[in-house]
Each structure stands twice: as C-alpha cells, then as structure tokens.
Amino acid sequence: xxxxxxxxxxxxxxxxxxxxxxxxxxxxxxxxxxxxxxxxxxxxxxxxxxxxxxxxxxxxxxxxxxxxxxxxxxxxxxxxxxxxxxxxxxxxxxxxxxxxxxxxxxxxxxxxxxxxxxxxxxxxxxxxxxxxxxxxxxxxxxxxxxxxxxxxxxxxxxxxxxxxxxxxxxxxxxxxxxxxxxxxxxxxxxxxxxxxxxxxxx
Length: 202
Description:
The protein has 202 residues and is mainly beta. The protein has strands spanning 43-47, 49-53, 57-63, 69-75, 84-91, 96-102, 109-115, 134-135, 141-147, 152-158, 170-176, 180-185, 196-200.
C-alpha cells in the first residue's frame, strides 16, 4: 500500500484514503530493519516484601505464588513520582522468591508487583504492608497503614547495620490502632543516608 517509509522518530503514521479498497493493514520492517521492543506487561497489585542488605547486594524477598510473574521496581529518591522496573518479569517457582541488586545500583527504594493480573499471595497474620511514605513539606517521611482498633503497633527504622548481619531496629513510636488507618511521621528529615522501615506488632 505504501513504502518503503523511513522512520524519523519513535512513532510513525501513514494515512490511506477511505476510497482505497483495502480494509485490513499490517506494518513490516524492510531490509533487516530493527523492530521496536514490545511494550512492558501491565503491572498489577503490590506485594509485601522484605529487604536484606548484604556485603555487596540488597536482596528483595517476597511470598509468591508458583507460576505468577512479578517485577521488582525501584526508585532512586523517595520523592520520585514513578517506579522503574529493575528486574522482571520473574516467574515464581515456589512460595518464596528472592531477587538481589548490586549495591552499586542507584536505586534505594524497592517494591514488588504482580504482572499481567497475577495472583497475590495472602498476607500472613501479623504482617503489615507498609505503603510508600509521603514526603511532608518539612522534608520528613509520613507513613500510613491500615489498622485494627485497639491493636498496638510500633514503627521502627534501621540504617542497615553491618553487612551480612541482622538489622538492628529502633522504635520511632508506639501507637494504638483505631478503626481505619494510622498515620505516623518520622521526625528525622530525609537525607541521602540509607534508612529501612517496618511496622511491628509487639
């Protein structure tokens, strides 16, 4: 119908008059041209995950469903508005999946998501899914999570400690849940230092 058409950018358009007898169309490369990569698969729900810092790597571990695809996503700064795909799709082969990233990576914040409508595993009793915090006008991190009325919670932080050793956690505050959600702010302003957070049910 038309061509060869030499592309000048990442998108190319060609129009055909409606008087044309053709009703079905396809586009093909000519002479060994390079086809663009397929679009990334759609990302589904966020999965609760655990980050462990080793001597040279940061490893993300999550409870998985065999056969479900996941992606590990990262942010360089917590203020970033989008997540970059660091790895994946990763097809789980069991109930736990781990992916490690070199500490030379620029990414400091991670999350795991299902891909293409995959199944999210149930959250185990006592586990708290801590969403990405909000950065306040004063440059502090504000955390919000779903709570049960009357239940005690502790927001804790760690600087990563010594490589390959268990993290040492410091409690920021203890709070008692009310029906709905709890919002807690870390009084320490955001810096370039590495800080990990978790919510513990004492």
